Amino acid sequence: MPSVANTTEPKGFEGSPDEKRATVRGMFNRIAPTYDLLNHLLSLGVDRSWRRKTIDLLKVDEKSIFLDLACGTGDVSLEAARRGALAVFGVDPSKEMLLRARAKLRYALSRLYYLEAFGEELPLKSTLCTHAMIAFGIRNVQERPRAFAEIYRVLKPGGVLAVLEFTPMDQKVVSWAFNLYFQRLLPVIGGIISRDRQAYDYLPESVSRFVTSTDLRNEAEAAGFKHKASKVFFFGVATCILLEK
C-alpha cells in the first residue's frame, strides 16, 4: 500500500514558511558545488532520463516560452533549449545554483533568463509562458497552493505544466530496496562528498514526509489546472503529472 506522508518537518527545517524557505535556500547554496556530481551519481543517471521523458510529454518546440521552476543547475533548462525553445526562464531561490546554471547554458541558442526567486512569487508577467516544469522541487516549496496559483497566472491559456517528483510506491519489494538505498546509503555517500550530512539527511526525509501524487494533482486542480495525464517511472519511484491551464 502507498505510504502515508508524515506531516512533521525534517529536523532543522522547522519554523514559519519564511524561515523554512531561508533554511532550504541556504542548504542548496551550500551543496551547489557538488550538486550535479551527486545528483547523477546517486541516481545512476536515471534522473536525466526522467527529465527528458517529461519534456517529451510537454512537446516543447521552437515556439515554446518555457518556465523551469526550481531550476537548480539548469538540466531542465538545457533540455528545453536543445528542443529549440524560443525562450527559457530558469527560476530558483539559490544564487549558487543559478551561477552554475548560467555557466552550463552559456552557449545555448535559446534566449535564457535566470531569476532568483521563490515559486510563491514569480517575477514574470501574466500569460507569458506556454510551458512550465518543476522537477524534484515541488516538495521544497513551502506554500504549494500559492506556487500553483502563480504558475497558473504566468501560463497562457492552454499552457501546460509538468510536475515531476518522487512519490510513494505500491511495489513492496522495489519500495523496500529503494528505501534502503534512499534513506540509509544516500545520506552517507552524499554527506561524505558534499561535506554536508544535514542536506542529504533532509532529502530522503522530505520525500518520506511528502504528499502523494493524488494530493498534488488535487492541489493543482484547486488552482484552476485540468489534469491531462500522469506517467509513473520505475515502479512508482517518481511520477510525472501533466496539467493544463
The outline comes out as: globular
CATH class: Alpha Beta
CATH architecture: 3-Layer(aba) Sandwich
- Derived from helix and strand composition plus strand pairing, the structural class reads alpha/beta
N-to-C series of helices and strands? HHEHEHEEHEHHHEE
CA-CA gap between termini:
32 Å
**How many domains would you count in the coordinates?**
1
Question: Can you walk me through this structure?
Answer:
β6 and β7 form a beta hairpin. The N terminus is likely disordered. The protein has a 7-stranded mixed β-sheet with strand order 3-2-1-4-5-7-6, sandwiched between helices. The protein contains 8 helices and 7 strands, in the order ααβαβαββαβαααββ. It has one domain: Rossmann fold, CATH 3.40.50. With 245 residues, the chain is an alpha/beta fold. The radius of gyration is 17 Å and the shape is globular.
Short recap of the structure:
The chain is α/β, with parallel strands linked by helices and 245 residues long.
Which helices and strands, and how do they pair?
Elements (H helix, E strand, L loop, with lengths): L16 H26 L3 H13 L6 E5 L5 H8 L4 E6 L2 H10 L6 E6 L12 E7 L8 H11 E12 L5 H23 L2 H12 L4 H10 L3 E8 L4 E7 L1
Parallel strand pairs: 1-2, 1-4, 2-3, 4-5
Antiparallel strand pairs: 5-7, 6-7
Helix pairs in contact: 1-4, 1-6, 2-3, 6-7
List keywords for this structure.
245 residues, Rossmann fold, disordered N terminus
